[in-house]
Amino acid sequence: MTRHKQQSSVTAQYMTKRKFYKTVITFEVLSEEPIPANASIEAIIEESTHGGYSMGDDTRNQTELNGKQAADELLKQGSEPEFFRIDETGKDLGEND
Prior knowledge:
The chain is of the alpha+beta class and 97 residues long. It has three helices and two strands; from the N terminus they run αβαβα. It has helices at 3-14, 41-50, 67-76, and strands at residues 20-30, 54-65. The protein is elongated and about 55 Å long. 9% of the residues are buried.
């Protein structure tokens, strides 16, 4: 077994058993002018409900993540794995080694 496979097996052995979920929600908006780049989702929805935007149905894509994948996704968002009380390997914080 290679060193990488050994490390992966050890990491998986101690990774949290909890599951996490990544949900991507997209929606289509039609407008007569470009939507400003700094417009918040709330402002776009408000304009779609009471103003000059037309908003279609949303689509959702949900993916189940293990602890390591959740840690990686948190880092991609500029957050920290500690947000879900895990470390960068997906292990629960506070677990005895």
